[in-house]
Specification:
This protein is of the alpha/beta class and 281 residues long. The protein has a single domain, classed as Rossmann fold (3-Layer(aba) Sandwich), CATH 3.40.50.720. A seven-stranded parallel beta sheet has the order 3-2-1-4-5-6-7, sandwiched between helices. β5, α5 and β6 form a beta-alpha-beta unit. Bound molecules: NADP nicotinamide-adenine-dinucleotide phosphate. The site of NADP nicotinamide-adenine-dinucleotide phosphate (NAP) has 32 residues, from α1 and α6.
Length: 281
């Protein structure tokens, strides 16, 4: 029985990942589900149990180091170890930097606490157990963690930070046999943009993107699961994402022009008349 700890498991990609792990490893997966909303975690746990998984729900706010450490302790106490930690909990944000008032800038730090520090604290606590199991670490970053996206200075900064942290850690953990898989989703059909923050650091309550070309969440979760099982270094999910990454090296000006065009496109009314959706979560 392999034990998976998943943060941000109450919704979106994390909840779907839990369900797919349960389905793929019927009767052979222990799932430790973490997020703040207990009721939603209980619903996800019930779905996973119906597929034969053993589950443990641990309400956790990853912005609190003590809660991150308690999560890992609870997992080890219940299942005796950890084979895989998926650092998935995250919050999105949309704002032009110049629109953020000085008195509101603090939410940039708060976003870093959720998106980077939550992963750092959970990973630090889980490390001895992952080493003992020669296990797997997963970081759910974003294409905005590979390419700086206008209108996403805060979010891009947190996801670049994740990318760098886990890239360095991957090399450190190689001798111990612990793999580190970083996933870079583009636009995935979840509620993340509605849950995300606006220029004042308030919940946006709406998506600024056209969602009709978003990747279905089950496809995104399957790609992450395939990547972690194959111990891939990276999962870059779309052709456009792979192309953007390559173009950034050889023609960075092109990438900036495309990103600005996408930003202008976003500003248009959402009446279906605008061009293709930009690639970012
Ligand atoms: N969807 C996309 O287009 C997209 C694209 C690129 C990258 N990503 C990344 O994928 C990951 C999952 O995103 P998603 O689309 O599934 O978003 P989502 O549907 O909004 O789910 C986010 C999850 O994170 C949890 N969470 C948020 N703040 C938390 C906190 N302080 N402590 C613990 N859990 C917290 C939420 O649970 P509670 O509210 O219950 O705490 C929820 O389970 C994120 O890291 C995101 O940046 C998403």
């Amino acid at each position: 029985m392999n034990t998976y700890v998943i943060t941000g498991a109450s919704d979106g990609i994390g909840a779907e990942l839990a369900r797919q792990i349960a389905a793929r490893h019927r009767g052979a997966a222990a799932l430790v589900l973490a997020a703040r909303q207990r009721e939603r975690l209980d619903e996800v746990a019930a779905r996973c149990q119906a597929l034969g998984a053993d589950t443990l729900v641990v309400p956790t706010d990853v912005t609190d180091e003590a809660q991150c450490r308690r999560l890992i302790d609870a997992a080890v106490q219940r299942f005796g170890g950890i084979d895989c930690l998926v650092n998935n909990a995250g919050v999105s944000a949309h704002a032009l930097f110049e629109e953020v008032r000085a008195q509101d800038l603090r939410w940039y730090q708060d976003l870093m606490t959720v998106n980077l520090w939550g992963s750092v604290w959970c990973t630090h606590a889980a490390l001895p157990h992952l080493k003992a199991a020669r296990g797997r670490l997963v970081a759910v970053s974003s294409l905005a963690g590979l390419i700086g996206v206008p209108g996403r200075t805060a979010y891009s900064a947190t996801k670049f930070a994740m990318t760098g942290f886990f890239e360095a850690l991957r090399a450190e953990l190689k001798p111990a046999g612990v793999s580190v898989t970083t996933a870079y989703p583009g636009v995935v059909a979840t509620e993340i943009r509605r849950h995300g923050l606006d220029a004042r650091g308030q919940t946006a309550g709406r998506s600024g993107l056209k969602e009709d070309e978003a990747m279905p969440v089950d496809v995104c979760a399957r790609l992450i699961l395939d990547g972690l099982e194959a111990r891939r270094r990276e999962v870059v999910m779309t052709t456009r994402g792979k192309l953007g990454r390559f173009l950034k090296l050889v023609a960075p000006g092109r990438v900036e022009a495309m990103a600005l065009a996408a930003l202008a496109d976003e500003a248009k009314p959402r009446d279906g008349s605008a061009g293709p959706a930009p690639e970012r979560g």
